[in-house]
Amino acid sequence: QVQLVESGGGLVQAGGSLRLSCAASGRTLINYTMGWFRQAPGKEREFVAAINWSRGVTHYANIVKGRFTVSRDSAKNTLYLQMDNVKPEDTAVYYCYADPPNTATMGAGYWGQGTQVSVSS
């Protein structure tokens, strides 16, 4: 089992920055894929960004590429999402996830409880 706890959400003005954190515990994360999804009111959950824990290879949704940066601190077992130049359409609940190696479907592993991000115009 992997436990994930997000933090860092809040209210930010458009054009501003916010950093989300996701603290992981319970297992070593060798070759896990960890990342972020988000869900806005009335919309489906959508992929935001991901990183391979061991190799550090990243992947981003086009809508956040160039504005958001996903990273991890292996010593702290913590995943981050640096959000820069945020827009009102970035308003959503952000969820951290962790997929074990060889997981066939993205997001089929473990999930955090989510953290609210609200961007004012």
Please summarize what this structure is.
With 121 residues, the chain is mostly beta strands.
What secondary-structure arrangement, pairings included, does this model have?
Blueprint: E1 3-7, E2 10-13, E3 18-25, E4 33-39, E5 46-52, E6 58-60, E7 68-73, E8 78-83, E9 92-99, E10 110-111, E11 115-120
Parallel strand pairs: 2-11
Antiparallel strand pairs: 1-3, 3-8, 4-5, 4-9, 5-6, 7-8, 9-10, 9-11
Estimated radius of gyration: 13 Å
Give the DSSP E fraction (strand runs of 2 or more residues): over 45%
Terminal CA distance: 40 Å
DSSP E strands, number: 11
What summary fits the major beta sheet?
7 strands, mixed
Shape category? globular
Unreliable runs: none
Helix/sheet category: mainly beta
Average of per-residue pLDDT values? 96
Number of helices: 0
